TrEMBL record:
This is G-protein coupled receptors family 1 profile domain-containing protein. Gene3D superfamilies: Rhodopsin 7-helix transmembrane proteins (1.20.1070.10). It holds the Pfam family 7tm_1. The chain crosses the membrane at residues 39-64, 71-92, 112-136, 157-181, 208-228, 276-301, 313-336.
Length: 417
């Protein structure tokens, strides 16, 4: 979240709740309106968004940690929810400072000056990096389904998630010198205020760093999101079209009212991959929609006055819209995943322990295949068939044939059929 960083000290040093010296009457009226706007926004609206966001992302982590969601993609989604929780928690101090004023003590002033922006932007950058890893992983799986995942895949994914958090803190650490603590004497009291470190923020090196971070956190990830996710969606559309043609041809040969015993119809993995594609696409759209207003701030208000009412309103609204991106993911999950809704209801009802040790909604003859990608299933022989009989001489060969991964077959050969 780079809101205000490129444009100087917006959301950083302009504490509208503190005034010093004599100001004209008009500026005093404008400042009072700015204070009312800040209190309404950061004292009422933002706390509601934070409460929804923290609850929603905690619920996502709890639900995705259950036995039903054990795929590789869900590890990335869990890490993404943790990064969003970090963003929400770091916004609490900003809300207190801008909505209710900064505490007049040096420890809090030191945190606001040197740590607040680092923590906020670190978690925000980590969420973007985790999304990039997720999109790249989805692209590799869809276009290279024969790639075998080893037993260390889950450890590697955890390493990628941890590396994303580390990279976020590394790339955000220079923000610690953006502000300084300014002290003033008011009689016997010492007032602590935030000031922009002009000697740093007005330098050419600082501008290069800010734009480099903007490219690394916004521009390049946006290109990756658009390019790779568009290819994934295109591939699924092609596979769906060919699947409909296949079913249309098979319906003519299948007896009337006979059950569909095709490999794809019995495999939940292909549908699950489709749901993941829809989920990631919705996340990317929300990312673009919520970050565009704040990105346009330097262009729309290149030469603004800190007390310009239009600038104040646009700045606050863009910050709220950008913050809402981290709070609406629970709504995206609820809208895109029936399984998530079902498991969340179980968690809220305290029934999450009832599903442990058993496969929920697992059709007979299917076992989950975690060796390749962790999100699809392989087919095993039906119960009660001769294939389960030890007398069957071709048992091993037939079982091996039936355990063929349906999703891999479709993704490897679907487009060329």
């Amino acid at each position: 979240m780079l809101t205000g960083v490129i444009d100087g000290a917006t959301l950083c040093c302009e504490d509208v709740n503190s005034t010093t010296g004599h100001v004209p009457v008009e500026e005093d009226v404008i400042r009072s309106r700015a204070i009312s706007l800040a209190w309404m926004s950061y004292g009422i609206i933002v706390p509601i968004i934070l409460a929804i966001g923290i609850f929603g992302n905690v619920a996502i982590v709890v639900v995705l940690s259950g036995p039903v969601f054990r795929g590789i993609a869900y590890l990335y989604l869990s890490g993404l929810a943790l990064a969003h929780i970090g963003v929400m928690l770091s916004w609490i101090t900003i809300t207190l400072r801008l909505g209710y004023g900064m505490s007049n003590n040096y420890p809090s002033a030191f945190y606001y000056a040197h740590l607040e922006l680092v923590v906020l932007n670190a978690f925000s950058a980590a969420s973007v990096f985790i999304m990039v890893c997720l999109i790249v992983d989805r692209y590799i799986f869809v276009f290279f389904p024969a790639r075998i995942r080893t037993g260390n895949t889950r450890k590697n994914v955890n390493s990628y998630i941890v590396s994303s958090f580390i990279a976020g803190f590394v790339i955000s650490s220079p923000l610690s010198v953006m502000r300084i603590v300014h002290t003033e004497q008011d009689g016997s009291n010492t007032l602590f205020m935030l000031r922009e470190n002009v000697s740093v923020t007005q330098s050419t090196i600082w501008r290069i760093y800010i734009w480099a971070m903007e490219i690394a956190v916004r521009i390049c990830p946006s290109i990756v999101f658009i390019a790779l996710n568009s290819l994934v969606i295109k591939r699924f559309l092609q596979l769906n079209a060919q699947s409909r043609q296949f079913h249309a041809a098979s319906d003519k040969l299948r007896a009337q009212n006979a059950p569909d015993t095709g490999l794809l119809s019995r495999n939940r993995g292909y549908k699950e991959e489709q749901h993941l594609a829809i989920l990631t696409t919705t996340m990317i759209l929300c990312f673009f929609v919520t970050t565009v207003p704040s990105s346009l701030t330097p262009l729309l208000y290149a030469n603004h006055h800190p007390l310009d009412p239009n600038y104040q309103i646009y700045r606050v609204c863009s910050a709220i819209v950008e913050l809402s991106n981290y709070a609406i993911y629970i709504l995206i999950y609820l809208a895109c995943s029936t399984q998530f809704r079902r498991q969340l209801l179980r968690v809220l009802q305290g029934k999450c322990n009832e599903t442990r040790g058993q496969n929920v909604d697992q059709p007979i003859g299917e076992i989950e295949d975690y060796s390749r990608h962790g999100t699809t299933v392989r087919l095993t022989p039906e119960h009660g068939t001769k294939l389960n009989s030890p007398e069957s001489p071709t048992k091993e060969a037939t079982v091996e044939e039936d355990t063929l991964d349906a999703t891999t077959v479709m993704l490897e050969h679907g487009v060329s059929v």
